[in-house]
Amino acid sequence: MACELASHVGVTTACNVSRLPRSTCYRKHPVKAKSTALLMADLGVTKSHSRPHVSDDNPFSESQFKTLKYRPEFPDRFGSVQDARTFCAAFFTRYNTEHHHSGIAMMTPEMVHYGLANQVQENREQVLHAVYAAHPERFVRGIPSPRPLPEAVWIIPPRAEIPCDRRDGTYTEDLNTILRTVDHLYLST
Predict the structure, then answer these.
(1) N or C: which end of the chain has fewer CB within 10 A?
(2) What would the pLDDT profile of 99-120 be if each residue is shown by its tens digit?
């Protein structure tokens, strides 16, 4: 009798579960799982595609760290913080003064920093010309030349300036061409 009364007022009880379709058992609608994105939105967590600022944002630091780690004398563990500092002090001195980097035309950071790169480049060119003059048969591709120095080395290059036609600041008709060129430069690097 209680079951009949309960079903008359629309309350589902254990006694009439067997008469209900499986999807509506104990509820009027089937239970469905939310997607993770909807759950996060309900909880107030906003979606972001940006990365946090971590050490891997700087490719120069990553390159230096890899060079450090792959040195044959790099230990599995340091005995103390002082041991690590002593090792790194010697490593960084060598890295900056003796290690020739492919990204800066086989120069050392010290040469580039103190403005010696152009002089070293000229010396290399003279040596290559002298070797070519002594043994031209060894150079089937012609006179060798040293790697060109990069104009600039950037982690994130600055945006190019866009020229204006008039004093009021309106851009030239070639703005689209300039923007395509800038996009090409950024996409090709």
Answers:
(1) N
(2) 998 889 999 989 988 999 999 9
